[in-house]
Amino acid sequence: MTVAPESPAVTPPSLLATLPGHWYTAPGVFRREQEHLFEAMWFCAVRGADLDRPGAFRTVRIGRESVLITRNRRGEPRAFLNICRHRGARLCTEESGTVRRSLQCPYHAWTYDLDGRLTAAPNLSKMPDVDRVERGLVPVRLREWLGYVWVCLAEEPPSFEETVIGRWPNGSATRTPWSATAWRGWRWAAGSPTTSRPTGS
Ligand code: FES
């Protein structure tokens, strides 16, 4: 059995230091990573072609949230927190699918149109104080670029132009679409400062 040395060897100056082991397991580090990276930055979430018609949807996990991405009746992409505004149930439990014109919660049948507006619920007509827009799905910031749908959970997202488009390799919009964050992480991991790039999507 290999026994780890009691005191780690000093990293030679020519090698980049690696992260301490507890950074990969500590709950506090994980929470901060979720808050400051995955829930604060733009992410390449789904291919636009996967939402090939109004009502087609995908659910993706971004940070600690489930996000529902769909197209409305005009074919425009829309993203919402995948949470029913009645009692907070998960609205869509499938990873993907297509609905005809509305999204209905499986719990008590609150129903939303593809723009997130509350359109129907049991006894809704007897509840005039329930505002259908106010009680609609919570929108998530979204951009469609390079054939991909990008989302950001932050209430005030960083500039998409500066943090995604402007950081694309060579500023080109013709390269293989990929998550800009993943690209930077890959480049860091590969130790490649500028030129190499991934070929997958
Ligand atoms: S929790 Fe969705 S309808 Fe009640």
From TrEMBL:
Q: Which UniProt keywords apply?
A: 2Fe-2S, Iron, Iron-sulfur, Metal-binding, Oxidoreductase
Q: Does the keyword Repressor apply?
A: no
Q: What Pfam families does the entry give?
A: Rieske
Q: Where is the Rieske domain?
A: 44-151
Q: Which SUPFAM superfamilies does this one have?
A: ISP domain
- Molecular function via GO: 2 iron, 2 sulfur cluster binding; metal ion binding; monooxygenase activity; oxidoreductase activity, acting on paired donors, with incorporation or reduction of molecular oxygen
- Name listed for the protein in its UniProt record: Rieske domain-containing protein
Give the species.
Streptomyces violaceusniger
